[in-house]
Amino acid sequence: AQKITQTQPGMFVQEKEAVTLDCTYDTSDPSYGLFWYKQPSSGEMIFLIYQGSYDQQNATEGRYSLNFQKARKSANLVISASQLGDSAMYFCAMREVSGNTGKLIFGQGTTLQVKP
Amino acid sequence: DVKVTQSSRYLVKRTGEKVFLECVQDMDHENMFWYRQDPGLGLRLIYFSYDVKMKEKGDIPEGYSVSREKKERFSLILESASTNQTSMYLCASSSEGVWYEQYFGPGTRLTVT
């Protein structure tokens, strides 16, 4: 069965430093997509970045990059030059292609606090 | 911009009441989803719909039902609310292609007393 694991319940980072949020996944489907979402204290879920299982290069979106290691089944989010506004909860999620329903499986989340 | 709206940000209901949570999206998305979010558990899928009048159970459908009479609207129904249904409820929508991200509404924090 597909599964997403985020082992860091909480993280601290100094402003302007880089931080890596861990995510491992398990699936038997060769085709899948990996997503990262940000949830500020206001509650809305904000899409950050996407990586397809067949993508050759790691995805990047501005200060966000996804360190995709397929053999290790890991999809860590790297935030460069942290800002105070990055303080939020971050969720890793996965969708399998089979079934084509768009279902996402979410990890437990990691709370990131950026210190000034 | 895609917009997903939910009828209430905060809701307080009594045990045994019938509760309706409404979700509307304005981007003509085929897929719509209802999740609940609890601390330490992440988001768990309750129900989803890939077309009007079509619905499928997610991972935790017990105690819930859904309705999708129009493409833009997806309702979550708690037939008889219980205290263990106190939670944050998030609605989302996405295009039909599996590579598309889901867009979320602001959430409804439901308290059942």
Task: Give a nutshell description of this structure.
The complex is a heterodimer of chains A (116) and B (113). Chain A has strands at residues 3-5, 10-14, 19-21, 24-26, 32-39, 46-52, 60-61, 64-69, 74-79, 88-96, 105-106, 110-115.
Structural class of chain B: mainly beta
Shape of chain A: globular
Alpha carbon gyration radius of chain A: 14 Å
Secondary structure: number of strands of chain B: 11
The most extensive contact between chains is: A-B, 28 and 29 residues
- State the distance separating the first and last CA atoms of chain B: 37 Å
The pLDDT mean of chain A sits at 92
Count of discrete alpha- or pi-helical segments spanning 4 or more residues of chain A: 0
Shape designation of chain B: globular
Q: Total number of β-strand segments of chain A?
A: 12
Supply the number of helical segments of chain B.
Answer: 0
Beta-strand percentage range of chain B? over 45%
Indicate the proportion of strand residues of chain A.
over 45%
Query: Which sequence of SSEs, written as H and E, runs from N to C of chain A?
Result: EEEEEEEEEEEE
Question: What is the mean predicted local confidence, pLDDT of chain B?
Answer: 92
- Can you tell me the residue ranges of chain A where pLDDT is under 50 for at least 5 consecutive residues? none
Describe the structure.
The complex is a heterodimer of chains A (116) and B (113). By secondary structure, chain A is mainly beta. In chain A, 0% of the residues lie in helices and 52% in strands. Chain A is built from no helices and 12 strands. Chain A has strands spanning 3-5, 10-14, 19-21, 24-26, 32-39, 46-52, 60-61, 64-69, 74-79, 88-96, 105-106, 110-115. In chain A, strands 2, 5, 6, 10, 11 and 12 form a 6-stranded mixed sheet that branches. The mean pLDDT of chain A is 92. Chain B has strands at residues 4-6, 10-13, 19-25, 31-38, 42-51, 54-57, 64-70, 73-78, 87-94, 103-104, 108-112. Chain B is an all-beta fold and 113 residues long. Classes of the chains: A mainly beta (116), B mainly beta (113). The interface between A and B is medium-sized, with 28 and 29 residues.
